[in-house]
Specification:
- The protein is an alpha+beta fold.
- A hairpin with a 2-residue loop joins strand 7 and strand 8.
- The longest helix is centred in the middle third of the chain and has 14 residues.
């Protein structure tokens, strides 16, 4: 499980350090792709394969699943972690996520998220969490 929030800097070549705590679970090579809310998702290979298997059955009969599958899987890219713990984020993914200099790398259960710091702050103000928690209570999530 990935958890925690880390602030890092994207270098001029588009590289960013992946926190050591996350590298342990991601391995030396993992997958990044377009995520929701304007961020990037990173998956260890075993989890990525599981997500792919889940989609294979659904995309045959569901148009929205096919559309999302194209968005999600066509933008996926392998990432190798170098000796300094960095990955190179492809330019198309940097552009999608609006990554400039300051980034946030956050754990979110089975994957990591890579955010532009400004987007992270705007999307995750956490001001109305009591209201959100009330709405989620009906889903059976334990808090």
């Amino acid at each position: 499980m990935f958890m925690g929030e880390y602030n890092h800097t994207l270098d001029p070549k588009g590289r960013v350090i992946i926190p050591a705590k996350f590298r342990e679970n991601l391995g030396d090579k993992f997958v990044i792709t377009k995520g929701l809310d304007g961020c990037l998702y990173g998956y260890p290979y075993d989890k990525w394969e599981e997500v792919g298997r889940n989609f294979q059955e659904t995309i045959r009969t569901n148009k929205e699943a096919r559309q999302f599958s194209r968005f999600f899987f066509s933008s996926a890219s392998d990432c190798d972690i170098d000796k300094q713990g960095r990955i190179l984020i492809p330019s198309n993914l940097r552009e999608y996520a609006g990554l400039s200099k300051d980034v946030v790398i956050a754990g979110n259960l089975g994957h990591i998220e890579i955010w532009d710091k400004t987007r992270w702050d705007a999307a995750n103000s956490f001001e109305d969490m009591d209201e959100v928690a009330d709405k989620l209570g009906g889903l059976g999530l334990m808090l």
